[in-house]
């Protein structure tokens, strides 16, 4: 008996020693086709430039708007999409634990009782009753099974599961970054809409004063009914612009409420008071192109996907080779409960099992070719993801600089329009110009003021897009 047990132990040890062979290629981090420096257009005087210094991971705080910072913080703790992404990450980790369990033996316990009677005309009755009497059967024991990972199939499967966990984690990072960007964008658009509403109300006040002046001039015989009608139409036209802006403002507040997983109008009291559009006047740190792969969740996910596809090749290759399974059981069996557990009621069985794929009709070869094709696709996808990220950063840089130039030009246009409106009002009061000139100048001022508000918001929005393209934010 001792020699048999010793032989079994030696066999198990030998199989364990063979488990160091791992099939398939080892994953190597791919090279990223990125330039050494950004092709950045030099900023003009008065513009916020960029610097290749480390990216600010809490860039929303740099806008200097406490309300924005508070909303971003709350969104990262309450947002439903982020909670769902975290749940998917936990599911992926649970699947990894399932796969990793194959590296250890499976041990099952069993216990049972039955009362039965065998046939008198059938095969031998192991109970010794010859089928004449019923008998009790008590049993209990342990069963053990373990497959020797001779070719690293389990190890590669765990490697695939680890890469899948990383993919789920990068998906969560991507959702987190998207939530931050959406919160900042909606807040900036809200403040822009409120500023636009203030501009319209200011112009409405000017138009109403012009209408009152025209009516007074009509009484004095200086103005005509036509000019009064034109002034009244101007007031009505400007009033018509209020409702869409008020609607858009309410919708943006609700959009922010949804991002924060709160009911409609929950933020109405908090955000209904107008405030300036958040702006950023300092130099923007954008880091180096080579750092994109460390920050962008989509690049990190594409790399993990390539890792999973590479490891899956090893799993497919291992299926071509023999599989050895060790199994055994040890327990007790007795006709009387009082005998259960005695030395005479013991039973055991140990031994290896071997399975060799002899003919699979091309199934294994097809599976290997499939995994190799998936690895090739994942490699191409990684290169595409990196290149797309590079394009997004470059486009965001161009947009940021262009919006700054547009804003500066509109600032000058509004200043000229304001002086022109003051001048034409004075001339109209003196009777040297008709009311049509007043309408023309005021409409030009209103259009340029609205464009300036939008342009100011676009500068901040393009900066948010730039930070989103750089992949900064989820790390904090």
Task: Summarize the entry for a quick read.
The protein has about 475 residues and is of the alpha+beta class. It has 11 helices and 6 strands.
The class by helix and strand makeup works out as alpha+beta
| pLDDT averaged over residues | 86
Rg estimate, integer Å: 38 Å
Tell me the strand percentage band. 5-15%
Structure notes:
With 476 residues, the chain is α+β, with helices and mostly antiparallel strands. The chain is built from 11 helices and 6 strands. The chain has helices spanning 2-18, 66-78, 80-100, 153-219, 225-239, 242-259, 268-271, 292-295, 297-318, 363-430, 435-470, and strands spanning 50-51, 106-116, 135-147, 284-285, 323-334, 346-355. The strands form 2 sheets. The chain has a 4-stranded antiparallel β-sheet, with no helix packed on it. Strands 1-4 form a two-stranded parallel ribbon. The longest helix is centred in the last third of the chain and has 68 residues, at 363-430. It is elongated and about 135 Å long. 32% of the residues are buried.
